[in-house]
Amino acid sequence: MSENLQATNLDVPVWLRVALQEKGVRRFGVGECNPRIAEYNQCTQLAGYDDKIAWCSSFLNWCMKQSGLRGTGSALARSWLTWGRPLSQPRYGCVAVLTADDAVDWKGHVGLFLRIDADNVNLLGGNQLEEVRELAYPNDRVLSYRWP
């Protein structure tokens, strides 16, 4: 499936608009903490943690909260597997839940769907190369697409 979505502002879900405004927020170096990432962690059981911990799910929970929606409240990426309803096909801005690189069955990654091609799904998410950014992941890592 190949999609090149040209969304208008009306087509962009509010949580994705919130996330897009956070692009470029990144983890600070050793001995420092980005207070914005610590704020993301306040939306999960990672409250009080710095930016050195995995924060992809904290970021999505924060985006949902800013949008007036309830997230999972969990720092586990796979907690999003039971959030909202499953989609048979991805939808612009939907939550995409992925396996982790190391295939440990409780680990994962979560981000917001932007587009897909034959090989990769592109997501906007937190803790993607230590920042809020767009990044491509192999399609075979996708576990589920979710919508509120």
Automatic annotation (TrEMBL):
Limits of the Peptidase C51 domain: 49-127
InterPro entries reported for this sequence: CHAP_dom (IPR007921), CHP02594 (IPR013423)
Superkingdom as given in the UniProt entry: Bacteria
Descriptive protein name: Peptidase C51 domain-containing protein
Native species: Caballeronia grimmiae
